[in-house]
């Protein structure tokens, strides 16, 4: 079968691989669309410490069931449209024992620690397959990336009385914008790209700030009557936005960090302690986040195509990845159509 492989940093190839073997509890999926994720870009750039080369990337999946193993429940039938929860969990570590499976100590994500879905077929355990035929093939590929932002808002305990600032309006930040608005919060979207800020408005952001052209502190001061936002979501993975989240969040505020910064980030502890901040990480997503995103996509009137920068064939994927690496700030989502 045809697959996309990141052979070495900066090198993407179309390769031939053997068809997956399915176990008794597995489902063989025929891939329709797979999204390139920021982790895939990091792999391409040689900056992902969890990856060994060569690696088939991809964990944002739209597929149909091709075949099922003998122990798969009868509800899984050939031709059903599905997406996939791409994470593993051991069930025994301290996180799993708290049912926080998203933060499993031994998690292996498709396309990162193990071979991903950028191929014509993939086999996965039936427990990781989500059937949702009410969603289109394109919508199914957007479920997983949106769940990550949904999960961050859940971690931040956002309610309808909160003002939430979201740093970074890519796919992860977009998910956070949507979830915060569904919770009834006032949302401030911050980015340095006006196209992304326009999309943030379409997704429901009440205010947008281009922190390259506008004074971030003054804008937030005016919007929040000098208090600062109650919740800050760091979805950019930049040392500047990590510091801004601490600086700008309100006293007794909450800071949720999703992005991986490429370098170490130093903080002065004064504001951390003085504001009595809750600062937490946010990783992957839980089953409830997948359910919430699917419900949103089924009922929303938003055209999900605003989230997709381009759709390419497998043959065009190497060039698409190269172009993305040269100007990452301009891309929301690249889908590969098999």
Automatic annotation (TrEMBL):
SUPFAM superfamilies: GroES-like (SSF50129), NAD(P)-binding Rossmann-fold domains (SSF51735). Signal peptide: none annotated. Transmembrane segments: none annotated. Pfam families: ADH_N, ADH_zinc_N. Residues 23-131 form the Alcohol dehydrogenase-like N-terminal domain. The lineage of its organism: Bacteria, Pseudomonadati, Bacteroidota, Bacteroidia, Marinilabiliales. It comes from Draconibacterium halophilum. CDD domains: Zn_ADH7. Residues 172-298 form the Alcohol dehydrogenase-like C-terminal domain. This is Zinc-binding alcohol dehydrogenase family protein. Coiled coil: none annotated. PANTHER family: L-THREONINE 3-DEHYDROGENASE (PTHR43401). Keywords: Oxidoreductase. Gene3D superfamilies: Medium-chain alcohol dehydrogenases, catalytic domain, NAD(P)-binding Rossmann-like Domain. GO terms for molecular function: oxidoreductase activity. It comes from the Bacteria.
